[in-house]
Known about the structure:
The protein is an alpha/beta fold. 50% of the residues lie in helices and 12% in strands. The protein is built from twelve helices and ten strands. The protein has helices at residues 3-22, 57-68, 89-99, 117-128, 148-153, 175-194, 209-214, 228-236, 259-273, 280-310, 313-341, 350-369; strands spanning 47-53, 76-82, 103-107, 133-137, 141-143, 162-165, 167-169, 204-208, 242-245, 252-254. The chain has a seven-stranded mixed beta sheet with strand order 3-2-1-4-8-6-9, with helices on both faces. Strands 5-10-7 form a three-stranded mixed beta sheet. The mean pLDDT is 92.
Amino acid sequence: MTSDALSLTFGCILVVLAIATAFVTPLLRRPKTEEGETDNNGNLPSVSIVLAVHDEEEEVERNLPFFLNQEYNGKFEVIVVDESSTDNTTEVLKRLKNDFSNLYTTFIPDSSHYISRRKLALTVGVKAAKNDWIVFTDASCRPSNTKWLTAMASHATTGTDLILGATRYADSATGYERFERIVRWWREVREAQCRMAYAYCGCNMMFRRKMFIEGNGFLNSLKYLRGEYDFLANEYGERCRTAVANEAEATLTQDAPSRKTWLNDHLYHIDTRKHLAHGLHHSMLNFFDTLAMHLNIMVQIAAIVVSLLLQLHVITIAASIALLLNYLLRVFIGKKAMQAAEEDISIWKIPFLEAFMMWHNLFLRIRHSRCDKYDFIRR
């Protein structure tokens, strides 16, 4: 075979590699849409919305009325558990209680030690709840419409114990923050639909009160400071009994995080994953997604460099076309994904955001390895 034929063959291989690896992406593994349908002749179940707050007066005043003003054809209450706030959170709650009869408040003492105050507060909220279904959420979140609770509760059927709802960042968050939340959400929800729930990166979880009480709630993870949603999804997200509410009406919008909050949330998640069950499939799928993208980039760049040195122009052109083709395919896939997620992230940035995720995760792992293990445990 002549050198030109070899160059042409190798060039074709580079193009095929570029096309194949472009389709190895979580943006193509979007969760299936699940239609909500209620039991009991369409009657919606009674629901208790539980929030734990600490020094969040601004968030409580801004976001809590969105939960209290839900248009819901059933009984619902909102329970706020104050973790001994030192700001004006208590005064804000008192003022809101005068305006809303379905708002109830309680607190946990500041003297609680050796267990996660957030998990303790949520447990207190569950035990104070009067209804069969519980929703856990955060004060930093707000429903995008008045039908949010109806959309979530429509999935509360006889065969369901746990419902995972979508949580998106507000438009004021960076493009990377919003993009990463989408990718994590789709990966985790897809696993919950196909196998068992592994983790959950939102603040929009609904479950049966009986399941929580009989399963001893957070008993197995009380010493870990955070990870409340991850631990619940991992422990109680049984196959075929976990529903996904990924319609727009069931979505919560979360305030854009500060740099410190963003970093701490990710460090806590890295530490939490060490204690979660059945994570091998999740890790391997993430590894192959990353490997495919970076393997293609490295092979194409290496081919360009070597072919330029050896003056193999056919390979240089083929590798350049392959890089461009891979990029354009990922842009096209990203465009469809952002439309499905109802996000307005620039489609031209998506391949770069995807590639950056690996380096960002590597940075976080290094940062986590330098932390004291007691930073993640209540003392």
